[in-house]
Amino acid sequence: MASQHQSTKSSAQENTSKPTAKPTLKPASTPKSPAKELLSASETNLNKTSPSPSPSSEASSPTIASSFGPTLSLKAALEGRSTDQSTKLFVGILEGSITQNPKFLLSFTINLPKDGTYSNLSLAGLTSGNRYTAILKGSSQIATASAFTMSPTVTTLNSGAVINMLSGDLNEDNVINSQDYSIARAALNSTPASKNWNANADLNKDKVINLFDLAIINKNIGQAGATGAWTSPIPKVSTPSASLDNPLPIGGPGGSSSGHQQAVTSGYWIWVPQ
After folding, report:
1. In sequence order, what are the beta bridge partners of 154?
2. How far apart are CA 242 and CA 216, in angstroms?
3. For 168, left (φ over 0), alpha (ψ -120 to 50), or beta?
4. CA distance 142 to 79
5. Torsion-angle region of residue 31: left (phi > 0), alpha (psi -120 to 50) or beta?
6. Which domains are present in the chain?
7. Helices assigned H by DSSP within 187-268
8. What CA–CA distance (Å, rounded) separates 265 from 222?
9. pLDDT tens string 147-202
10. Which secondary structure element, helix H or strand E, spans residue 166, and what is its range?
């Protein structure tokens, strides 16, 4: 009986000691259940066949936008603005340096943000290592030219320095003259709620057209942008190509005196009299 009692007691002690060891073993064995093994195998096969980019490629996209190919970055500052540089900015790319009648290989109208920086503008189709010139023009600024050698990845205009743009071209003919001054005077003392409000004449973007705006125009009268006077306003949407047709002397567009629309070759800009 004593022997049997000891044996039973020993067995009980063994039974009570075993559960303390089991919890450390169970977590290691649970992933091996048939359901979890099937799920793991399914996820592995999905990862092997999925076309989605890996996390590493996604992380690198802000630096080199592979989806865009070679890209262009820029930073612009509009005269008269202190902080808000936002505008509709025309960007035209031509081969080599400026000529008398340039033809744009690429043209874009972009929304320049408040800080004046823009990146990931696609240069797909151009040749790496070749020389090009970018023409930048804001809605109230004359055009500024910036030459560059295209990089196979990211090209930064003006070596990353700010491109300063002269303000005062209110009729978008790429010339600042008395016509622009007259447009601003017609909106003098107006605000966005006024009937004679003209947002283009609010050069410092303070929501009032006053003597400060007129002073900027007066200072720049006689200035013409890169490529000289333009025969029509800048394109309002992005186009694969565009050009300037027969740039005219400073003083405004010329042409037919009949008052009808002057048409030019397809793909070129036209001038529509106001």
Report:
1. 71
2. 30
3. left
4. 11
5. alpha
6. 71-166+228-243 (2.60.40)
7. 211-220
8. 30
9. 999 999 999 999 999 999 999 999 999 999 999 999 999 999 999 999 999 999 99
10. none
